[in-house]
Amino acid sequence: MLPAPPAGSTLANTTFGTLRGNALTGVDEFLGIPFALPPTGSLRFRDPVDWSAPYERPWREATAPGSMCVQATGGEEDCLFLNIWRPQSSAPPRPVLVWVHGGSFTEGSGAEYNSSTLVAKHDCVVVTVNYRLA
Q: The whole model's pTM is what?
């Protein structure tokens, strides 16, 4: 059984296990969530491969952004992460905004844009994403 989240954190149940994120003022923030297997080794330069099994443990920390993809300023090959912000209050389904960073396929990261203010102001869910760069 998962222990109660510490103060300042929140939990979200997914088909891949439970995420532990940050509880902000009126907004839950889940950062650094992998959306595909790491594109390393035999998966390098191939299409992303979906997660096919639950995480190694029944919960996953989602409190800090994942690595940005390789670019002139640094980064890692294991970089296929997304970030999610949602309102804390329960309500009917909300609109979802997916933000894909710019950078001409050579730079940028989904962690560039903190969406907590947008979510709090407009009662929506925001997802930002990292993608492999040229």
A: 0.87
Buried (b) or exposed (e) across 16-45, using 16+ Cβ within 10 A? ebbbbbbbbeebbbbbbbbebbbbeeeeee
Assigned token pair, 102: 């710019």
44/11 Cα distance (integer angstroms): 32
Q: Report how far residue 20's alpha carbon sits from residue 28's, in angstroms, rounded to the nearest whole number.
A: 10
- Identify the burial level of 124 via C-beta atoms within 10 angstroms of its C-beta, where 0-12 means exposed, 13-18 middle and 19 or more buried: middle
Per-residue pLDDT tens over the stretch 59-95: 688 999 999 999 998 899 999 999 999 999 878 799 9
